[in-house]
Specification:
Blueprint lengths: L1 H29 L4 H9 L5 E3 L14 E9 L5 E8 L5 E8 L8 E8 L4 E6 L1 E4 L2 E4 L1 E9 L2
Length: 149
Amino acid sequence: MMNAKLIGFIFFLSFCLLSCQNTGDQTKDATPLTYQQMWKAVFSDTDGEQIEWHGEAMDQSAVGELSLLETGSCGGSECGKTIMLASNSDRATEVIIQSVFSIPDLPEYTAVKFTVPSGQQLTVGCSHLCMNGTKVVFSPKIVGAKYLD
């Protein structure tokens, strides 16, 4: 009789401990992602400056000499590709890149400003954000590009 009670108690204790562990994981998944957390995860290696841009028209006179390239892996579990901004110009340019994404409760895009020396490549950021089993695509687009000299 004593062994049955002891086995029952051990089973009950194990059940309680496993239940507590599962609750902790659910709380972690339910925590909303902030804009700054997203920025740090996707743009931690960027050579650009985070700016506020709301879709206003911009000078695009230098856009023809710029391109966006995908290179090595990045992001959690290397889920994305590093996006690079390449200049074929012999002049320095100022470039604004919009990166559209879809994460609930966050603005639908972010913008990064670059000063690109002639003929150089700079890091924009990662093409994906992978967190808690979710993969979010970041679609970069050059929205402004003008010569500085």
